[in-house]
Every structure is written in structure tokens, then in C-alpha cells.
């Protein structure tokens, strides 16, 4: 019997993906980041480690497998996403008074380990990026793979922290008359991650429903 068949997964603590995406579209300067290996900084309680045993023999079929015990949050265990998000939420809440805007963005605009946020100006976006990186690192979580539609913001981020390819691109057309946002497009890599496309002309978000093999459009 697998461990995931016997433990409760816990409630979904992450915000709705459609809500995160809609808020992301309101920013003139977009920011995307990824929490690097979100499970590894979280240590399992000693009393829970004994139920995280596994066998491993490094493809040496002629040898008997060795018994190991996971000490960190384990990938593919049904309760791990809940525990990871609950830990991040608990840790960063300690910085709410020092970094109110940055902590709010993490709490409301991070979907599992992907954060989609932004600001109205380059300077405010760069300040947000620096604050988020600072307190997340203080909580032992490393924000990496940063991407933005602003060259100024990207130039202000450590090259080692940037995404290997630009995930957010700005359309060359003028912003809409209401100027509430710039139109953002998503690369093929971003589409593969979230299974969505943003259509500027239609002002809609299109998500891929893999179970029914059809597209669902959100206005």
C-alpha cells in the first residue's frame, strides 16, 4: 500500500489559478519567479520520517536494495503540496510588518511554487523583486528564474537568478486607452507550464482542459 493512499492530502491553500492570472494581467510591469526546490528546505518531523522509507539500489540489479529514510518533504506524497504551502505561508507571515506589499504578493499571487506579480513602474517592480527575494531567502526559500517585460528590471536582477529565456514579452503596440495594463504575451515555455494563452485582440485567457481535450476561455 502506498503512503499517499493512507494520508489525507489536506485542503488546497493556494489561490485560484484564474484569479492569479487575472491579477497578473493588471500590471504594467510583470514579474514571474519560481521557488527553487520548494520541498527540500522543509524537514519532516522525526516521528513522521519512519513512514517515508524507500528502497534504492542505483540500478545495480545484482545487489540487494538498500533501505533509506527521507528527512525532507517528499515529492509525490499527497500531503506534500499542502505542507509546503502551509510552511511558506507561516514563515513569510512573520515579515508582514516589515515587507507588507511583498508578503501580500506572495500570499495572494503564488500558485504552489510559481509567483506571478508585478507593479505599475519599473522602480516599484524592482523594489518588490528585491524585497521578495530578501525575506524568502531569510525563510530558506530561494526565488529564482526571474523574468519581466521590463529590461530595466531584468538588468537589476542578478544574472544567476534570471530565467534562461524571457517568459514575459511586451507587445510593441500602444497600451489600451484605459492604460490599466500593458498587453503581455507568454512564450511556449510559459504555455507548457500553465496550459494557457493570452489573446490581446480578444482580451481573454485560454486554458487547456486536458481531460476533455478542449480549450476553455475566460473573459
Topology:
Elements lengths: L16 H8 L4 E7 L10 H4 L3 E4 L9 E4 L10 H13 L7 H10 E2 L2 E6 L2 H17 L4 E6 L2 H5 L12 E3 L13 E3 L1 H7 L1 E4 L4 E6 L4 E5 L1
Antiparallel strand pairs: 1-5, 1-6, 2-3, 4-5, 7-8, 9-10, 10-11
Helix pairs in contact: 4-5
Biggest sheet details? 4 strands, antiparallel
Number of strands: 11
The level 1 CATH classification is Alpha Beta
Run of helices and strands:
HEHEEHHEEHEHEEHEEE
Helix content range of the residues, please? 25-40%
Number of domains: 1
Question: What's the shape?
Answer: elongated
Overall pLDDT confidence: 77
The secondary-structure class comes to alpha+beta
Task: Write down the CATH topology.
Answer: Alpha-Beta Plaits
**Low-confidence segments, ≥5 residues, pLDDT <50?**
167-212
Highlighted features:
219 residues, alpha+beta, Alpha-Beta Plaits, four-stranded antiparallel beta sheet, three-stranded antiparallel beta sheet, 23% strand
Could you explain the architecture of this structure?
This protein is of the alpha+beta class and 219 residues long. It has one domain: Alpha-Beta Plaits (2-Layer Sandwich), CATH 3.30.70. The protein has seven helices and eleven strands. The protein has a four-stranded antiparallel beta sheet. Strands 9-10-11 form a three-stranded antiparallel beta sheet. α4 packs across α5.
Amino acid at each position: 500500500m502506498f503512503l499517499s493512499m493512507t494520508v489525507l492530502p489536506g485542503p488546497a491553500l493556494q489561490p485560484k489559478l484564474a484569479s492569479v492570472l487575472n491579477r497578473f494581467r493588471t500590471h504594467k510591469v510583470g514579474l514571474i519567479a519560481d521557488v527553487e526546490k520548494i520541498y527540500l528546505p522543509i524537514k519532516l518531523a522525526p516521528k513522521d520520517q519512519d513512514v517515508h522509507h524507500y528502497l534504492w539500489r542505483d540500478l545495480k540489479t545484482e545487489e540487494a536494495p538498500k533501505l533509506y529514510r527521507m528527512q525532507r518533504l517528499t515529492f509525490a506524497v499527497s500531503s506534500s503540496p499542502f505542507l509546503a504551502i502551509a510552511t511558506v505561508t507561516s514563515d513569510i507571515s512573520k515579515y508582514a510588518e516589515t515587507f507588507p506589499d511583498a508578503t501580500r504578493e506572495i500570499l495572494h499571487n503564488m500558485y504552489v511554487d510559481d509567483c506571478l506579480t508585478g507593479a505599475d513602474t519599473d522602480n516599484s517592480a524592482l523594489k518588490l523583486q528585491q524585497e521578495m527575494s530578501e525575506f524568502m531567502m531569510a525563510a530558506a526559500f530561494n526565488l529564482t528564474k526571474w523574468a519581466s517585460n521590463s529590461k530595466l528590471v531584468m538588468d537589476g536582477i542578478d544574472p544567476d537568478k534570471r530565467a534562461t529565456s524571457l517568459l514575459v514579452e511586451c507587445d510593441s503596440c500602444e497600451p489600451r486607452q484605459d492604460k490599466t495594463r500593458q498587453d503581455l504575451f507568454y512564450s511556449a515555455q510559459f504555455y507548457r507550464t500553465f496550459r494557457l494563452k493570452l489573446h490581446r485582440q480578444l482580451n481573454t485567457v485560454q486554458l487547456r482542459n486536458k481531460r476533455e481535450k478542449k480549450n476553455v476561455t475566460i473573459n
